[in-house]
Known about the structure:
Layout: H1 3-13, E1 26-32, H2 37-52, H3 59-78, E2 91-97, E3 101-108, H4 128-135, E4 138-143, E5 151-158
Antiparallel strand pairs: 1-2, 2-3, 3-5, 4-5
Protein name: ATP-binding protein
InterPro entries: Anti-sigma-factor_SerPK, HATPase_C_sf, HATPase_dom
Pfam families: HATPase_c_2
Amino acid sequence: xxxxxxxxxxxxxxxxxxxxxxxxxxxxxxxxxxxxxxxxxxxxxxxxxxxxxxxxxxxxxxxxxxxxxxxxxxxxxxxxxxxxxxxxxxxxxxxxxxxxxxxxxxxxxxxxxxxxxxxxxxxxxxxxxxxxxxxxxxxxxxxxxxxxxxxxxxxxxxxx
Length: 160
């Protein structure tokens, strides 16, 4: 992996579980336009990336987590403040692979920490972070390093 790619990903390392950045065997990212159709394109991008890395068997779990992270970024950080679209950086999906781990990370311009909701049984939303926790091996978030605003919400999968 080139030095340029490692430098670009450096702000993402902060807050992740200990991982050697030089051991990255694959990395892909995509900017997400500020509309809900971005969830579908994030899933398609995830499918293409996982197929390229011969990780097709992980698609269902990883795509569910990616969908939840992207939906949260759009709902709570991007579309919640439409007047900031011109000044705030867009959401961005990052997929990074190591020999034994896969990390899905979504960057958004909000400083607010993600909060797991207490959805009642009739609610149509509010379970996203519960699903992220259930389907990934771990997850977390941290402020975006080197930026005045923004955060990264990530989920880690151990590879078979």
